[in-house]
């Protein structure tokens, strides 16, 4: 079976002339020899350009390859712009499977003898059909009421087909990496591994449900984003039941204009929602293409997004968030030295990177961007340029940043489609600067202490014991002056820590004056500790 599938893939690639996309200087002699062995398989689509041939080839190979092409369309660092643009046209709409079969799968997953035990109504005709799953509408009997819901169900036997194609993709990636001169730079193995994880995550609808619940909690009472309610009690790995929504597809500009939607505010909120997810929550919807985003029909003057299909999410740790925010700010301040240093400090490029050379490379690539008005500068293209330049300096693939870049490209394209005059930098800069300020300074210190209070509250009762042990050790030691100075330093340091922690408790509970007195005392103790420490060193 694998051999038959592999032959079909090779045949498809050659019938669409994809071998012609490889530049002659990058096509080694053994590659040309292997191509000659399939002399009967020629290009049957010479009338089409390279991007069209690649898109049509992926569509003919099926859903796994279609989704792979969709992912590649966001990797502008790997593909020429014209090919990436053509791949962005790939549609994830495929013929639906039998509705009776979908009903059987739902009954099996929920252990129902008949679907009407749980659902008053169930429509066998799917509302939508995609490569991994399809969606049916129903009315759920829940808490003595009927709820309009949609039921998402994974296609039967799709898992085996996905694993088989992923295995072949991985083998093909290894061949490209080993035998094409430019193979290692393109990092095909890492790209396929990243795609594999993303695709397998989409097969687990319970994971998608959990992601939706998290996003909904993050935007509770928000006027910008609404996530449909998930009925987790009735959801399984291959079945997801959630609230049905009735919004306008965000790509339907005519319908939005017809109801007098405030498109400028809608576009700005898209940017705000993205940066809020990334920098406030460290948890962002990473598949925000137009098919997954709707606009509420209520209050068009104060429009709200509705997000669905939360199977793919991204996360950033604190270091990545801080470095990313500072990178954006430094870039728009044209501080390329700072951009280079941030890449090194974050570990995105090796520590031995020549910062001067890296700074010059970033300036060479990015400075021409500022010849455009600020409102026309593409955030997504900024990331592409930065990561592309950094890759020349051996930057490792950062999966979380790839997802971020993909999502930003979606958000930016969406925002400018809604409101072409949208100035992303004007919208985003205050948000980024405020976030950076919150991470440094006294407010950030107190916030961090407050976050760690449960830990220190547990340790605080141990401080007297530590002080007693230090004093006892001091009396048991010899009268050596150096040892006494060292022990006194330890004692003052313990005092300083104790007063600091106690002061923090008072500050958080809004006893301001006692906290000021305790912090002042802690400062004196810390000074005494440092003094004894310096005397000990002398």
Automatic annotation (TrEMBL):
InterPro entries: ABC1_dom, Kinase-like_dom_sf, UbiB, UbiB_bact, UbiB_kinase. It comes from the Bacteria. It is a single-pass membrane protein. Its main location: membrane. GO terms for molecular function: ATP binding; protein kinase activity. Its EC number is 2.7.-.-. One of its GO terms (biological process) is ubiquinone biosynthetic process. It holds the Pfam family ABC1. The keyword Coiled coil does not apply. Pathway: Cofactor biosynthesis; ubiquinone biosynthesis [regulation]. One of its GO terms (cellular component) is plasma membrane. Keywords: ATP-binding, Cell inner membrane, Cell membrane, Kinase, Membrane, Nucleotide-binding, Transferase, Transmembrane, Transmembrane helix, Ubiquinone, Ubiquinone biosynthesis. Residues 90-343 form the ABC1 atypical kinase-like domain. ATP binds at residues 127-135, 152. NCBIfam families: PRK04750.1, UbiB. Belongs to the protein kinase superfamily. ADCK protein kinase family. PANTHER family: CHAPERONE-ACTIVITY OF BC1 COMPLEX CABC1 -RELATED, PROTEIN ACTIVITY OF BC1 COMPLEX KINASE 7, CHLOROPLASTIC. This is Probable protein kinase UbiB. It comes from Pseudoalteromonas piratica.
């Amino acid at each position: 079976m694998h051999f038959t599938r592999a032959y079909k893939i090779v045949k498809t690639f050659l019938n669409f002339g994809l071998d012609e996309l490889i530049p002659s200087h990058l096509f080694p002699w053994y590659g040309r020899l292997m191509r000659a062995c399939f002399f009967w398989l020629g290009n049957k689509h010479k009338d089409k350009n390279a991007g069209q041939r690649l898109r049509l080839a992926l569509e003919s190979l099926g859903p796994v390859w279609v989704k792979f092409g969709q992912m590649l369309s966001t990797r502008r660092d790997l593909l020429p712009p014209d090919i990436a643009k053509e791949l962005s046209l790939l549609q994830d709409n495929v013929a639906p499977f039998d509705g009776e079969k979908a009903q059987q799968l739902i009954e099996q997953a929920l252990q129902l003898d008949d679907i009407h035990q749980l659902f008053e109504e169930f429509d066998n005709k799917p509302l939508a059909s995609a490569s991994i799953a399809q969606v049916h509408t129903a009315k759920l009997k829940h808490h003595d009421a009927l709820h309009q819901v949609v039921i998402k169900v994974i296609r039967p036997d799709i898992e085996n087909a996905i694993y088989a194609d992923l295995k072949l993709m991985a083998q093909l990636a290894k061949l490209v990496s080993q035998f094409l001169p430019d193979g290692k730079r393109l990092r095909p193995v890492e790209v396929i591994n990243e795609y594999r994880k993303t695709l397998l995550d989409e097969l687990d609808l319970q994971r998608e449900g959990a992601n939706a619940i998290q996003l909904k909690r993050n935007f509770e009472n928000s006027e910008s984003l609404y996530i449909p309610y998930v009925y987790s009690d009735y959801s399984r790995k291959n079945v997801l039941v959630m609230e049905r929504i009735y919004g306008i597809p965000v790509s339907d500009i005519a319908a939005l204009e017809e109801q007098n939607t405030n498109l400028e505010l809608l576009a700005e909120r898209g940017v705000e929602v993205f940066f809020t997810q990334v920098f406030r929550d460290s948890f962002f919807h990473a598949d925000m293409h137009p098919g997954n985003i709707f606009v509420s029909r209520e209050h068009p003057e104060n429009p709200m997004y509705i997000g669905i299909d939360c199977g793919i999410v991204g996360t950033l740790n604190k270091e990545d968030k801080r470095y990313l925010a500072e990178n954006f700010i430094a870039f728009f301040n044209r501080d390329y030295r700072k951009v280079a240093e941030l890449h090194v400090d974050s570990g995105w490029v090796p520590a031995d990177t020549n910062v001067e050379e890296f700074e010059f490379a970033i300036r060479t690539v990015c400075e021409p961007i500022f010849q455009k008005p600020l409102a026309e500068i593409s955030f997504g293209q900024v990331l592409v340029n930065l990561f592309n330049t950094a890759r020349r300096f051996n930057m490792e693939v950062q999966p979380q940043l790839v997802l971020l870049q993909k999502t930003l490209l979606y958000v930016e394209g969406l925002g400018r489609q809604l409101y072409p005059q949208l100035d992303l930098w004007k919208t985003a800069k205050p948000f980024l600067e405020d976030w950076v300020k919150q991470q440094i300074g006294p407010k950030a210190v107190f916030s961090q202490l407050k976050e760690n209070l449960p830990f220190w509250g547990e340790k605080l009762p141990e401080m007297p014991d530590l002080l007693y042990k230090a004093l006892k050790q001091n009396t048991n030691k010899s009268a050596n002056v150096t040892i006494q100075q060292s022990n006194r330093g330890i004692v003052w340091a313990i005092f300083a820590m104790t007063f600091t922690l106690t002061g923090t408790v008072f500050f958080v509970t809004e006893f301001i004056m006692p906290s000021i007195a305790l912090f002042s005392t802690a400062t004196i103790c810390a000074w005494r500790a440092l003094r004894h420490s310096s005397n000990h060193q002398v």
